[in-house]
Amino acid sequence: MEKKLNHYNRISALFFLGVGIFFSFYGRTVEIGDWSEPGPGFMPFWSGIVLAVMAVFLLLGSFKRREWQAMPPFFPLADSWKRVVMAFLAMVAYLLLFKIIGFTLMTFVFIAFLLKTIFPQNWKRTLITACATAILARLLFINFLETQLPLGFFGF
Amino acid sequence: MDLLTHIGLGAQVLFTPTNLFFCFIGVLMGTLVGVLPGLGPTAAIALLLPSTFHIPPVTAIIMLAGIYYGAMYGGSTTSILVNIPGEAAAVITCLDGYQMALKGRAGPALGIAAFGSFIAGTISILGLMLVAPPLAKFALAFGPPEYFALMLLGMMVLIYLAAGSMLKALMMGVFGLLISTIGMDSISGTQRLTFGILEFSDGVGLIPAIMGLFGVAEVIVNLEEGITRSVVTTKVRDLLPNLQDWRNSILPILRGSVLGFFIGILPGPAPVISAFSSYAIEKKLSKYPERFGTGVIEGVAGPEAANNAATGGAFIPLFTLGIPCNSVIAVLLGAFMIYGIQPGPMMITKYPDLFWGTVISMYLGNAMLLVLNLPLIGLWVQVLKVPYPILFPIILLFCLVGVFSLNYSSMEVAMMIGFGIFGYLARKFQYEMAPLVLALVLGPMMENNLRLSLVISQGDPMIFLTHPISASLMAVTFVLLVSPFIPWIGRRRKKLQERVGGENV
After folding, report:
1. Is the distance from CB of B430 to CB of B503 less than 8 angstroms?
2. Following CA atoms A45, A60, B476, B322 in sequence, which dihedral angle do they give, to the nearest 10 degrees?
3. Which chain A residues have a beta carbon less than 8 Å from that of B219?
4. Across chain B, what does the average pLDDT equal?
5. pLDDT digits over B246-287, tens only?
6. Contacts A8 to B, Cβ<8 Å
7. Which pLDDT belongs to residue B503?
8. Distance between alpha carbon B275 and the CA centroid of its chain, in Å?
């Protein structure tokens, strides 16, 4: 079904309403203080209320007819979602594994994975690019910039 | 005389082999970033920030500033040769620049963009040298209410210029303020929403947030369809504009420089606004306005000069008030703080070497760009030919490593990925990133100044209206806030939005 702007607005308004309410309740737990001596909860409390009120306005506005303009599809192509998910998964995997496997090797795997899965390249191009990037990144970050990156159990 | 002494001091700071080298690296990296679509100067400065930790602050700031104005230069190259602006500010250059390239006049277009940028850079640096010190003295009269009102106005201008719904932009601004409250409260020392995580005590890092919102989210959006581009393949020759080109361009360059400088001082996406305004002015003043958009050199010279002059102007609020007026300057403010320097009215007197060294480096950097850009055009064309499927994994790798190397913290990398997901979804739901980022930067300062003002006035919020400076600033903020309900201002906003295209600060 074609989604319209008001659908999007309704979802996001509910999200921000939740965020606003959460922060204002949280503000109360860390002492709001009063106007002459505002405490640490003053800003979260009042900003939370302001956000919640604005979210309510957005929610109410989403029921007006002029907000019913058609939106482009959430994913422009049939396989767009796969690329988006793959890219985020690759970044999470890099974060979880690069301390164990080591910067250079993990960089090689990360680049090769993205090259092969997002816009699939042939094996020759994938391996050459991944290898060159891993070596150059190692030279740049570890040898030249002296960044303390994990070397993993292989020691590189 | 005083000015000459200061220029001498700046030159003394700059003319050391190390500083000259890093100035060169800065403008080179900036041009590269400007040439590559999908990686802006904000992300590039954030990315290179950790690598500057083991060099002196002056050297680091010289390099980081070089990236900013280098990117403005580089952005024009892609606009002219590929019809894709490497930088938001170079959008308008596409109109006539690309048409000139199609007619085989890519050389003069690139040449006048480089010369125009150099002249504008020179004028804006002169302006910076003349305006910043007296403004800093004036800013000494600012107290907490004035600072709070000024920051509120800065945010409001950005929200006013939002491309879409102003309500949504306001919501993003308030959301940013809420996120900025995470961490240790600087007045009472209370931990807020840290959940016992050590990294949260210092608040949500600006760099992971910017890298996620601008770097990662931008790449992911591009991945959905993939960027295809065709570079004008005819050989770029005759880079030096001829006498007629100069005759047509010199006045647009001078007008663009002055306009860009003054717009640069204002909060908001100054390089973008100034480029669009310059184009509009040149079209209005031209004897042949109907030819604009078909490849006239004035349409390249004016906007290119204006957007470069605006970068010089944008440093003024930072150096004099300690307030960033766009996201690039916000990252620079973060950099100053990491080096233990608080920009503000006292900065010029407390750190004259840093201020004058940076200003003079900007002048030399502009000269370097001129020398660099013209002979290296061929190289930049080659860079443009690197296919995006090869480029994007490298950009993502740089984001991951750049954020990790800030504090060697996996939590900050996780934060960046989180902000990347949020930024991607927010774009889909038509929310803008700029108010969120500015609120993240200004949030802690705004909160402290608001609370201090209320303490000073013993809880009377009228303090913001009884002080003349803050009252004036509050009045402008209020007018901007209610503007959508005033028909004639609302219409002007719509026009301005269409020109600026929102978003890109």
Report:
1. no
2. 40
3. 87
4. 82
5. 999 999 999 999 998 888 877 666 777 788 888 888 888 888
6. 428-430
7. 39
8. 13
> Please, which pLDDT band fits residue A78 given cuts at 50, 70 and 90?
confident
Amino acid B504: pLDDT: 41
- CA separation for the pair A19, A13 (Å, rounded): 10
**A32 to chain B: closest CA residue:** B451
Q: Determine the distance in angstroms separating the CA of A44 from the nearest CA of chain B, rounded to an integer.
A: 6
SS3 per-residue string spanning B240-301: CCCHHHHHHHHHHHHHHHHHHHHHHHCCCCHHHHHHHHHHHHHHHHCCCHHHCCCCCCHHHH
Q: Do residues A59 and A72 lie in contact, with contact meaning Cβ atoms separated by under 8 Å? A: no
| Burial class of residue B130, CB neighbours in 10 A (0-12, 13-18, 19+) | exposed
Residue B86 has pLDDT above 70, yes or no: no
Question: What pLDDT score was predicted for residue B271?
Answer: 75
Average pLDDT for residues B122-135, to the nearest whole number? 84
What's the Cα-to-Cα distance from B325 to each of A21, B265, B331, B426, B434, rounded to whole Å?
A: 30, 8, 11, 22, 11
Q: Quick one: average pLDDT of A102-129?
A: 93
Q: Predicted confidence band at B425 (pLDDT cuts at 50, 70, 90)?
A: very high
Interface test with A, best of B22, B152, B175 (most A CBs within 10 A): B175
Residues in contact with A139: Cβ distance below 8 Å, sequence separation at least 6, in sequence order: none
Share of chain B above pLDDT 70, in %: 90
> Which residues of chain B does A11 touch, with a Cβ-Cβ cutoff of 8 Å?
429
DSSP B162-230: -SS-HHHHHHHHHHHHHHHT-EE-TTT--EES-TT-GGGGG-S-HHHHHIIIIIIHHHHHHHHH-----
Distance (Å, rounded) from C-alpha B106 to C-alpha B113?
Answer: 10
Contact A145 B51 (CB under 8 A): yes
Residue in A closest to B446 by C-alpha: A43
Q: Mark yes or no for CB contact A88/B185 under 8 Å.
A: no
Does residue B234 have a pLDDT over 60?
Answer: no
The residue among B479, B439, B448, B449 whose CA lies nearest residue B145 is B449
Nearest residue of B to residue A45, measured between CA atoms = B178
pLDDT-derived band at A66, boundaries 50, 70, 90: low
Cross-chain residue pair A83–B450, CB shorter than 8 Å: no
Q: Which of A7, A23, A133, A149 to mutate to test the interface with B (most CBs of B within 10 A)?
A: A23
